Amino acid sequence: MDIMIKRRMGLGIATALSLCIFNGILPSSATAADIENDARAVTPDRFEREVVLNELHHINQKEIKVSTLAASQAQSPAVRSFANQMIKDHTKADSMVVNLAKNEQIDLASFQPADFEESAMSDLKLLKGAQFDQAFTAAMKSGHESALFFMKSAVADTRDAELKSLIKELIPTVQHHETLASNLAAQTSQMSGQQGMVN
Prior knowledge:
By secondary structure, this protein is mainly α. The chain has two domains: 1-42, no CATH class; 44-198, Ferritin (Up-down Bundle), CATH 1.20.1260. It has seven helices and no strands. The protein has helices spanning 13-22, 32-37, 44-73, 77-103, 115-125, 129-157, 161-198. Helix 6 runs antiparallel to helix 7. It starts with 12 loop residues before the first helix and ends with a helix.
């Protein structure tokens, strides 16, 4: 299905293009002209809604995938518990994103990790024990910080009442995740250092 895009007010064409390609809205071969040439078909608000919902969907699916690995591979019971909570909370959050997309007749792109995400996941799979726990919790801390920045920026920028309401509802959970991840990252770093001293 061809999706035609119009650049919204305040969003640069390069940013618009990169976000659309990243989320699968446009093919990787797309150029800035593909956005400009199709500017008649989609309102700025719909473009904004489509980009933000796709990004939220991507974030949720990524967290679910990484946390599923951690739920079975983490050494610490606390880290495994955290991973299971991530799966539960991001599955719930993604269902809310998907429902709004359906109501707005927006087709969300299938989850496709970016190259750097795929590489990080492959590296994580090779780790064991305390090293895995440390890398996973550090990634969760960084990932949720980035997600919060994106979500707060989207709330500030969007004029879409339903989208703003959805993100506001999701932010407290993501903030809680970031706090948990930060605490666990500090704990696992300390434990990894202690094991290194023993060895």
